[in-house]
Specification:
The chain has 695 residues and is α+β, with helices and mostly antiparallel strands. The chain folds into 4 domains: 4-204, Rossmann fold (3-Layer(aba) Sandwich); 217-344, Beta Barrel (OB fold (Dihydrolipoamide Acetyltransferase, E2P)); 371-540, P-loop containing nucleotide triphosphate hydrolases (Rossmann fold, 3-Layer(aba) Sandwich); 556-694, Nucleic acid-binding proteins (OB fold (Dihydrolipoamide Acetyltransferase, E2P), Beta Barrel), CATH 2.40.50.140. It has 18 helices and 38 strands. A 6-stranded mixed beta sheet has the order 6-7-8-3-9-10, sandwiched between helices. Strands 11, 12, 13, 14, 15 and 22 form a 6-stranded antiparallel beta sheet that branches. Strands 31-30-29-32-38 form a 5-stranded antiparallel beta sheet. Helix 2 (92-101) packs parallel to helix 4 (140-152), helix 3 (111-125) crosses helix 4 (140-152) and helix 11 runs parallel beside helix 13 (476-488). The longest helix is centred in the C-terminal third of the chain and has 17 residues, at 506-522. The chain is globular and about 70 Å long.
Length: 695
């Protein structure tokens, strides 16, 4: 491996500055992540390091040696791009082997050595069974893994990974996904418009962000940013965003608040930042600093339920206790954790071919006015299903019914269905207003009604200020919202949303989820929403049943981050399950009866990382001993990999609060609550709990 250093590196494209005076170092053996939104300059930095782009100014060093003038092949750097860049006429094997056969490679491998190297990396990435296929036969996720395998196979000095989607040992890693950056890296560099905004450990970047941009970019939901005024009254100092509430600022925070504040006339303005997990919500008043707000929307995140509140110029999101349900417009009490409040200077605005069977024997019902989220990995058939509902793809077999009427033979226009694609598909010569109005004008609607509907939907999706602009002048996130507005404006019978917020920055997604859900309820829509992101499915769709009662191992594994743990066990009684240990077995009560015919059956016991009980000492509820092998900081939580030596060296994941202190090598004791245990048949993978409930 090698040490990499950037010294005041800049890159200009004409008059546009893509990277500005970037300085950082990646130490030998370090995993260094560069994160930032689209257009921040992440990929440009990697391309300059790889030698694909020339440096405008500054110097890049590898192992202390300047490499600005070296061609790519002399730098011994391997780069995996966000796009796959596979050779379409090569097999997967030949794509991976290609860099080993390149004439400029100094080592010469025999056919047997080459095959061994390729198969080794294919096994590591889980693609060995694909080696004989061509890229056209692969899903997007499979193509990405082949691209990564091609980079890793020759074992270079430096790996450069541009938005990969697998867990790898790498050196410099580019991603817009903050979870990947926090979970994988020793240090993280947050990039913004070509400028390094902050470099630090994952904990530093999450808990002590250097700016409002970093606070907003890192986290899901992202940190709340509230603009307000510092007010001094009766020798006390308060923060107030307007009429909604007022919070007294503790004495130890006054200096940082005033340092970040700016003067506008006689007002002292500042931006308050606080994460959703640091806000308490209750129907009862919590403290003298508590204040009341009406609930705007309820949703679910991977960390649990989230309550959204609407302020004058932003949304406020707060985590709520599992199992507590608040009603829309209900007034509740909120209380900010003063030790976690941050004050910032305002630096940003808050804005098929062959025999492939894409869909097989799908049967489901979306009730009238229901919001149904369709969740699945790349290539699982999500988009194909939407296109069949819309009439854009013909059905091979089966029937689709609207209100009991078969629509297989109806044209798209006869189905009254609106579909928002993952791609924007906007008319480039029309303004935003005319793009949104197009489906209304196509139906012969009058100008007055068109204007009313366009401006209503534009207001809901925060597009009023850009109605006169053309798509070419908009960011990807804005174009996605225009596409969404065009689909929703005509109030169709069925609304189909295909990854509608995938191109938006993380800071905008949380707000858009709440907006979409609220719009669905206000317009009484019937909505089917496709996504590969289980967080979106949880926060927009109703997935408590999927989370709490998965029907089989696949569903249990796919929904949840980190994935559910599986441990070998046996059903001992109608309400008891055991785990085999070196000393015999440990029995746990199980909340959910199973039939007598299953007694003595070996099963896979599933427990979600968020629901594993953990203790520093052995207690009645935590009888299983383990050792911490890996600590992954994720911001709101810490993911521990715990090895259970007494349970066949099984490894499981445990999600703990972000403040929990844990070290590799620590001894811990684990346990499972009865209501959190899932049992899956060893052979069929079907859930015994669901099977029993259905009989």
């Amino acid at each position: 491996m090698a040490e990499v250093r950037f010294e005041n590196v800049s890159k200009m494209y004409g008059l546009k500055r893509a990277v500005s005076n970037a300085s950082f170092d990646c130490k030998d053996g370090e995993f260094f992540s560069i994160t930032g939104p689209a257009g921040a300059g992440k990929t440009t930095i990697l391309k300059m390091l790889a030698g694909i782009e020339k440096v405008t100014s500054g110097e890049i060093y590898i192992d202390g040696r300047p490499v600005n003038k070296l061609p790519p092949q002399d730098r011994d750097v391997a780069m995996a791009f966000e796009t796959y860049n596979l050779y379409p006429h090569f097999s997967v094997y030949e794509n991976i082997a290609f860099p080993l056969r390149a004439p400029k490679r100094k080592e010469s491998l025999s056919q047997e050595e080459e095959r061994q190297r390729v198969e080794e990396i294919a096994d590591f990435l889980g693609i060995r069974e694909l080696l004989g296929r061509r890229p056209v036969q692969l899903s997007g996720g499979e193509k990405q893994r082949v691209s990564l395998a091609r980079v890793m196979v020759r074992k270079p000095k430096v790996y450069l990974l541009d938005e990969p989607i697998a867990h790898l040992d790498a050196r410099i890693y580019v991603t817009h996904d903050y979870r990947e950056a926090l979970g994988l890296s020793n240090r993280v560099a947050v990039l913004r418009k070509g400028v390094v905004e902050q470099i630090g450990t994952p904990e530093e970047v999450f808990h002590a962000p250097s700016s409002d941009f970093v606070a907003r970019f890192i986290g899901d939901p992202p940190a709340n940013l509230i603009d307000g005024e510092i007010i001094t009254q009766n020798k006390k100092t308060f923060f107030s965003p307007g009429d909604e509430f007022r919070i007294e600022i503790r004495e130890n925070l006054i200096e940082s608040a005033e340092k970040a504040a700016s003067r506008e006339g006689d007002k002292h303005l500042v931006r308050l930042g606080i994460r959703s997990s640091h806000i308490k919500v209750s129907r009862e008043k919590i403290s003298d600093s508590s204040f009341q707000l009406p609930v705007y929307a309820m949703a679910r995140s991977p960390q649990g339920p989230v309550c959204t509140f609407e302020l004058r110029d932003c949304f406020l999101q707060a985590n709520v206790v599992e199992g507590v349900q608040y009603q829309i417009s209900e007034k509740v009490w909120l209380d900010f954790d003063q030790d976690r409040m941050l004050f910032f200077e305002k630096t940003m605005d808050k804005t098929y071919e062959g025999n492939v069977q894409a869909v097989r024997d799908v049967s489901f019902t979306c009730e009238e006015r229901e919001f149904l989220a369709v969740l699945g990995p790349s290539g699982s058939g999500k988009s194909s299903m939407l296109r069949m509902i819309a009439g854009l793809e013909k059905i091979t077999s089966g029937e689709i019914l609207f209100d009991g009427r078969v629509v297989n033979d109806l044209t798209p226009s006869q189905r009254n269905v609106a579909l928002a694609f993952e791609s924007y598909a906007l008319y480039p010569l029309m303004s935003v207003y005319e793009n949104i109005a197009f489906p209304l004008r196509a139906r012969g609607m009058g100008d007055t009604e068109v204007n009313e509907k366009v401006r209503f939907i534009a207001g809901v999706l925060d597009l009023v200020d850009i109605l006169k602009k053309r798509p070419s002048s908009l960011s990807g996130g804005h174009q996605q919202r225009v596409s969404l507005a065009r689909a929703l404006v005509r109030e169709p019978k069925v609304t189909l949303l295909d990854e509608p917020i995938s191109h938006m920055d993380q800071r905008v997604r949380a707000e858009m989820r709440a907006r979409i859900r609220r719009l669905h309820e206000e317009l009484n829509l019937t909505t089917i929403y496709v996504t590969h992101d289980q967080a979106e499915a949880q926060q927009i769709g109703t997935v408590n049943e999927v989370w709490n009662e998965p029907v089989n191992r696949f569903v249990a594994t796919f929904v949840g981050e980190p994935q559910i743990n599986f441990i070998k066990g046996r059903i001992e009684g109608s309400e008891e399950v055991s785990i085999f240990t070196k000393e015999g077995r440990t029995v746990f009560p199980f909340s959910g009866e199973v039939g007598r015919e299953y007694l003595g059956t070996e099963v896979s016991i599933g427990v979600r990382p968020q629901q594993v009980k953990i203790s520093a000492s052995q207690e009645k509820e935590t009888p299983i001993k383990g050792f911490i092998e890996l600590v992954e900081f994720q911001g709101e939580s810490v993911i521990l990999t715990v090895k259970l030596e007494d349970v066949g060296d099984t490894e499981i994941k445990v999600a703990t609060p972000g403040e929990r202190l844990a070290q590799v090598g620590d001894t811990v004791w684990l346990g499972f609550r009865p209501e959190t245990i899932h049992l899956f048949d060893k052979e069929t993978t079907i859930s015994h709990r669901v099977t029993n409930n259905q009989t």
